[in-house]
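User: Please predict the structure of the protein below. I'd like the answer in structure-token form so I can feed it into my own downstream comparison script.

Assistant: Understood. Taking the following sequence of 485 residues as input:
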Amino acid sequence: MLKAFTFGADRPPPTIIVMHYHLIGICGTAMASLAGMLQARGHRVTGSDQNVYPPMSTQLESLGIEILNGYRAENADIGADCTIVGNAISRGNPELEEVLNRKLLYRSQAEIVKEEFIRGRRSLVVAGTHGKTTTTSIATWVAETGGLNPSFLVGGIVQNFGASFRVADSPFFVIEGDEYDTAYFDKKPKFMHYLPEIAIVNNVEFDHADIYRDLQEIKYQFSRLMNLVPSNGRLIVGVDSPVAREVLDEMSGRLFTQVETFGTSEEARWQARYLDFSGDTTRFTVFRDNHSWGEFETHLIGEFNVRNCLAVIIAADAWGISKEKIQEAFRSFKSVKRRVEIRGVERGVTVIDDFAHHPTAVEETLKALQQKYHERRLIAVFEPRSWSSRLAVFQEPYSKAFTYADYVIIAGVYNTSKASELGKVLDVEELVRDIHLQGKPAFSFPDADAIVEHLVPELKTGDVVAIMSNGGFGGIHEKILNALR
């Protein structure tokens, strides 16, 4: 168990100076969550955005937070004590330019999270190329079930709380650590701001081709995170990921914290063994130093989710949460929206929504679904929408990512003209040909409506349709369900 310290018992609570924060780009997921957190702390909050849209606009409206529609220089007249600049905001934005011209105080979202909510608290930061949102959500619910009453900030809606954030009167804070850059004026990853007492690094792969040139740059950023963990903390690294293991090996002798490794491989100190996907739940046994430590089960599917759970088990044990409470939390965990989420079943066809966009995430998701629905036809519908997925950098990996699907549809690349500014765009027709050569039906259609028109007449009772995109994908989930009705 980590060395404990008191929070608020031997010192007066910190004085909160009420501020007026104005957020440029308030409708982004992280920014809207921060707006709600700041309001919960008693601050006045306003914001601006272009093309104000649900669900975040609805959430902000329900909180009574004023939103200015559009970015205009005169928005700076609102009189904020501090302007928070979202990482989607760049030079040339008229509101930002006015803030700079007037030399007003401005900060990034990650800076404010650090200073308002994390400093002085015990922070668990969940990082990695894949699985951050799910692992952070599991950790949050385990901490809650274990009686720690954590504050949290997650990049998705945690269904057990019905929210992406909470501000609680507790020394514990759980946060998703994104490797994407912080703001136009701060190009280091957001996770560099989050003061980890415990850091989880689930896995490391190349991603975010719009801001990182190669895998070496990604590795460097994760090595910086590892180097932040204090001597009385824990660094928890998934060594089933070859690159995460490489980063850890390269940091050997330069880390001043306790390192815990986890995975299904023999190299890991904490291992998940005897994985059983045959029943209604996923079962596995945890070994530490080759000794049986505990048996667990979860409603989550797939080997990747076993790893997510294992990482949380190690962190929970470090914070003194019992095995019994961990298992209780696993049993009652409701997952995260858009992570293998069943959107509906019509005429015996199951429609699933998933956020997978990196080729490894696509493959792992389809593998897990094939294990769960092994006697049913698995149809994969994929939209190249993230910056990296729109570029040819993953052309070959995508051709192998659909191995576990029986039938594949690839949508047209989202906003091709914008993607082409960064480099060569993914060749969807070539991808479809490569998948077809593997002996399975594969098709390409430009958009959601065309996909629905083609797919619905093809569907049969028992089919499972896995729709994968990190965006709205033209409302395709409901369009398929409605057409089936």
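That's the full token string. The chain has a mean pLDDT of 92.
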